[in-house]
Amino acid sequence: MHPDLPHSQLKIRRVRLDTGRENVVVVSRRSKALRAEIFRGFSRVELRQGGKVLLATLLITDDDTLAAPDEIGLSEPAFRRFAEAVGTEVTVRPASPPESLEAVRAKIRGRTLSQAEIGAIISDLAHYRYSDMEIAAFLIGSASFITSDELLALTGAMAQAGTQLVWPTPVVVDKHCIGGIPGNRTSMVVVPIVAAHGLPIPKTSSRAITSPAGTADTMEVLARVNVGVEEMKAIVSACNGCLIWGGHVNLSPADDVMISVERPLSLDTREQMVASIMSKKIAAGSTHLLIDIPVGPTAKVTGGVEAMRLRKLFEFVGDRFGRSVEVITTDGSQPIGNGIGPVLEANDVMAVLGNEAGAPRDLREKSLRLAAHLLEYDPKLRGGAGYARARELLDSGAALKQMQKIIDAQGPSTCSNELGPLSFDVEAPHDGIVSAIDCLRMNRLARTAGAPLDKGAGIRLFKKIGDRVEQGEPLYRVYTFGRSEHDLAASATAGDNGYAINGKPLGE
Amino acid sequence: MHPDLPHSQLKIRRVRLDTGRENVVVVSRRSKALRAEIFRGFSRVELRQGGKVLLATLLITDDDTLAAPDEIGLSEPAFRRFAEAVGTEVTVRPASPPESLEAVRAKIRGRTLSQAEIGAIISDLAHYRYSDMEIAAFLIGSASFITSDELLALTGAMAQAGTQLVWPTPVVVDKHCIGGIPGNRTSMVVVPIVAAHGLPIPKTSSRAITSPAGTADTMEVLARVNVGVEEMKAIVSACNGCLIWGGHVNLSPADDVMISVERPLSLDTREQMVASIMSKKIAAGSTHLLIDIPVGPTAKVTGGVEAMRLRKLFEFVGDRFGRSVEVITTDGSQPIGNGIGPVLEANDVMAVLGNEAGAPRDLREKSLRLAAHLLEYDPKLRGGAGYARARELLDSGAALKQMQKIIDAQGPSTCSNELGPLSFDVEAPHDGIVSAIDCLRMNRLARTAGAPLDKGAGIRLFKKIGDRVEQGEPLYRVYTFGRSEHDLAASATAGDNGYAINGKPLGE
């Protein structure tokens, strides 16, 4: 805080500009009291009203309809977070950068940070005091090297920055998959099985950011997922489980902020991934956690060495925070189930839970295997009885019944479950055996088709690895709602349709 | 480039939003053809029209006056750079990040980059293809460690990215000060002395970003400084020298882009400073370069070890690019001259050139010393004759005459040279001897007073280190144009006025 910096009163105006995560404000170049050029050295300003403070990135305008000389225009996130009425007078002054940035610069220069320094950084991140550039500075400064102590401090600080859930039972289980495999909706089968057995499994999930569907997007086809903390507790108390969107529960706000910058930069470091996942699970009050790492040539993790390193990191952090963490690797060589996209994936899930004849066997088997691990956290099932119990709960219809109970508790879906009316098939160019399916390519194709925005857009797979196909036989069908999505998806499959037939398996 | 990504035609609209360096565009949430949510995974879009391509950061709006569903709003820098009329149809699609970002990520992971990789990064930077976050990623990834070869590649690529000047004479001299000392306007005395002798010295300078005056801001009080390349050549041909703003000459566009991100992050690494300065001097065609490193407790460089490291780096890069580089350290313990702020500094410069009685001796002596070094690049003056020749040119009025010639060639100033009408004096709180003056604090105070925006705002110093003062005697006078600047500056001096009297010198 520089007491000698200029400041001034300006009236709030709302600017309907969605600036993503970042607080952005607009000031007139002819600003009555605040001369924009004084700010040249400062790209950030501080707004004060009563006890409230908001840090924001400053843009200058010559358009009075955005901000007149006596006004300050608040973009949507800034307006929402500052929560003051249009016309309210606020004090505006150039903002000194958050003090914790000094620690970020020290990290960039190669110094190891203390727990207190990391705590201050995470607190400032969670309170939206960092600009996107400053967030990037922290992430990149930490990307090349962080110590084990720094990783623990980071995880702990992130877990404490938001909501922290406490459950009345000694064992609270959870599962997490590090992602990347299309159609991999095991949580929606595992949760009802485990909940039907009686183990609490309060599952929060994410929405898709770069994939065609997150578990939250798929569950939304069946039930409401925008559920707050108190309601979540009531649902878990009644049903032993839930399948809701994590965004409303605010378990690791600092993580949400960091992800918004990691994604556009495609930064992906092991340590940050582990801190991100573990902070959310610790804040969620889980005592026993199963981590699923799919390994395959087009999966996030492509080899056993990398999977082992990740496993060690997860176990290390879990140990230090007194959580039991089990890490398993699974087959990530191709999509799981037949559908890719929210409605198609929800259909797969309900077919497995309903023991339907056409239900995808791989989704069923993987879900049973994961559920078995979780069930064995129940002392009565320890030592190998988990799988039989999981199968029993699934085959008997108990899991389906539990799923209906969870759906009823969360409330009805407001989404249509119709598939896209425009579809086309992609056919095998020659006879042979499917030798590989490119997960990255299938994800991108399903997004081009309109998923997750169009819940019923996506891909239905007819063939998987090992299947024999004849020339002209359909490999998969693409569903879209609009002509332009249809044409774009069709042209995207023209060059490389994502399937290898009689080829070498990918990555060998 | 993903051929399978959606794209669409939208009409250009101009949005009067100054987004600084970054290209920003605005699309309606109800965009007719381009559904904003498809873009969730992409924060960047690509605009195409004819052969032109522009990469920009995407914002979403619900306000049709910013962008209707069939429009795309271009913020000021994007509108200026794309240079297409309002209403023109452009193709818009999600943008793949520049390919060179892969090398940035490799650098973050700790790999050393090749010359080709660094060349690609710098070219993308200079063509505004990086977002601010991506620029930060490169700067921070390189901040902790770059090899000597990387430093050379970086300097070379930056020098080649913009205008490269070629002069008809074998010796072209230049000087550069790494900055931070208030009032330090030696260039405006050195250039006319050296030019009067007949050595070409085509000096480009920066405007203030965080200081109260850059040499370009101060020269602008006396003459026009917004001069382009061809005109610059004519001026140097006629006068042997010039004192113009570097911004119009575009010597290192990649550097300008990087500085726009380094500043808000306060990133300051030796290597990036050396690459920045040397790339501009190489592009400017200088053969002999004098670097001035002021050392003092509140200067940029606070000790001899740091100054020596910088010197070695400058000499290393100079050698490899075949430029003669001489690095000297100077006294950076207090402001140079009596004035701080464009008009006050211009007055100091003209008083020194005019040999006036009250001219600041420290500015005169430092300028003579620097001019002496530069003059000895003339073989006829080698070996110690530079100082006498510099003094001769200054005392005889030849330097003043040369300055008038340069001013006439550049054209008349359009700025007022009036001092701010509201002023106040800061007085010594007790008798004693001035033991220290805080450069950082005086810079900030002059900015609070309104410099460099108000050319006549700033500080006139009456006392320097070693001067005896009596209680109540004025130490300096602060000039402002507005009541609010006056009051803010007055309150800023109330706590700590920047002067130590009878104290320990700072830093000891």
TrEMBL record, chains A, B:
Keywords from UniProt, A to Z, are: Glycosyltransferase, Transferase
Q: Does the keyword Transferase apply?
A: yes
This protein's source sits in the domain of life called Bacteria
Catalytic activity reported: thymidine + phosphate = 2-deoxy-alpha-D-ribose 1-phosphate + thymine
EC number(s) for this protein? 2.4.2.4
PROSITE patterns this protein is in?
A: THYMID_PHOSPHORYLASE
- SMART domains to which the protein is assigned, alphabetical: PYNP_C
Q: From the Swiss-Prot or TrEMBL record, what is one GO molecular function term?
A: thymidine phosphorylase activity
Q: Does the keyword Chloroplast apply?
A: no
A Pfam family (short name) is Glycos_transf_3
Residue ranges of domain Pyrimidine nucleoside phosphorylase C-terminal in the record: 433-500
Instruction: State the similarity comment.
Output: Belongs to the thymidine/pyrimidine-nucleoside phosphorylase family. Type 2 subfamily.
The record's PANTHER family line, in alphabetical order, gives:
THYMIDINE PHOSPHORYLASE (PTHR10515:SF0)
Query: What protein name is recorded for this chain?
Result: Putative thymidine phosphorylase
Organism listed in the record:
Bradyrhizobium yuanmingense
